[in-house]
Design brief:
178 residues; Peroxidase, domain 1; Glutaredoxin; 2 domains; four-stranded mixed β-sheet; 8 helices
Amino acid sequence: MAEPSTIARPYAEAAFQLADAQARLAEWSDLLANLAAIASDERVRGAIADPNLLTAKIAGMFLSILGSELPAHAENFVRVLADNGRLDVLPEIRSQYEALKNDREGVVEAEVHTAFEIDAAQLADLVARLETKTGRKVRARVYLDRELIAGVKVVLGDKVIDGSARAQLGALEAALKA
């Protein structure tokens, strides 16, 4: 069976192209976030996996959860996913869509792991430094990780900048053993 990322790619690209052509990137981002949240619910996953439920019924369930204010293009997207048995990959579709959107907008997502709480000024300084380093706008999410002992670890896509005390102690240990 194909990987979820492979299955999700054409749907994410189609949603992105449609949203971009209509200048509705943010609207589609919110829509896909809501759809992914619904698809991640344990009860909904059970319904998606139930071979006795018709795809129209599953699509109807999604649409009823989201409400009657859903635009026609969003309803069509849900129905296409349901017809092709792809509602289960909505979280991956959302993830890939966000990557495409961020690339278009020149934004990079950063995970900032800190051993202690940091205030807004410290975060702003860190973000400014990361923006200078990457040449892109940085959107940071902060996570508290007491195992770092001290310092900060930043994850930018597939790049990790580890300035934590834990990493420095690990490097020192490796150097002493060599």
